[in-house]
Amino acid sequence: MTLLGVCKRAVLSCLFWLTVAPGPLRGDFHVAHVTDHGLRTCVCERELPPCSPLHGVAECVCKDLPLSWLQRAEGKGLVQRRRLSVWYSSPPHVALYLDNAEVRHLSLVRCSAAAAVPSSVAASTVSAGAAPAAKLPSPEHFVVQRLEQLTVWLCRLGSSQEMYLGREMGAAHHEEARIAVINTAALAGEIRLKAYTVRTGLDANGLLPFPNLHTLPRELPDSSSIFVTFLY
């Protein structure tokens, strides 16, 4: 058999085993349930219907996190995803979870409190003798870095709203620096979001010219052109 024939056979053999052999979870769909009790983060093989139960779903690998994790994560940008769906019943906790996150494509879906409660986290909060959870702060706004596309499900209107941030100002490519400042009150899911974008840069101290927005990230890309979009 020629060398070319051996190579062809090897390639066909690899393709066969990649097709039929079981493999690890691909993790194409990232979703987070954010509630009054805590949050559940999951990586799933496929996209699931919004607000569907995640407990015991074979296609997903999930992890439950308590409210204390939200408090520790505030403003630290621990969430880094290219695509992320957030199903929530607690807008303030969404703000804590996503503050200073880096997400390119973000979907926000408001669920009923009963639909989105992670069962294991909720059960732990009502166990006998358990101390009540400390009330977490309720930020007025939160920042998402590198956000290009935002999809919001509008409960009252029964439709979704899709927005491409910064495009109207010429930010057409993902290489452009983007910062989205989202008003927490807009997460009620009952109105259409409004947005306006400004094109700015860093001052001599390496900061943006918005002194009243205390949650803006302190470590920003060294870019002379930064698109900041305010959503409300």
Short précis:
The chain is an alpha/beta fold. The protein has helices spanning 3-20, 67-73, 91-98, 119-125, and strands at 29-34, 38-44, 60-66, 80-88, 101-110, 141-145, 149-154, 159-164, 177-183, 195-200, 226-231. The chain is built from 4 helices and 11 strands, in the order αβββαβαβαββββββ.
What's the SSE pattern? HEEEHEHEHEEEEEE
Low-confidence stretches: 1-25, 116-132
Shape call: globular
Distance between the termini: 69 Å
Number of helices: 4
Taking Cα atoms only, what radius of gyration do you get, to the nearest Å?
Answer: 21 Å
Q: What can be said about the biggest beta sheet?
A: 11 strands, mixed
Structural class: alpha/beta
Question: Could you describe the 3D structure shown?
Answer:
It is globular, with a radius of gyration of 21 Å. A hairpin with a 3-residue loop joins strand 1 and strand 2. It starts with a helix and ends with a strand. Mean pLDDT is 77; it is low at 1-25 and 116-132. It is α/β, with parallel strands linked by helices and 232 residues long. The protein has helices at residues 3-20, 67-73, 91-98, 119-125; strands spanning 29-34, 38-44, 60-66, 80-88, 101-110, 141-145, 149-154, 159-164, 177-183, 195-200, 226-231. Strands 1, 2, 3, 4, 5, 6, 7, 8, 9, 10 and 11 form an 11-stranded mixed sheet that branches. It has 4 helices and 11 strands, in the order H-E-E-E-H-E-H-E-H-E-E-E-E-E-E.
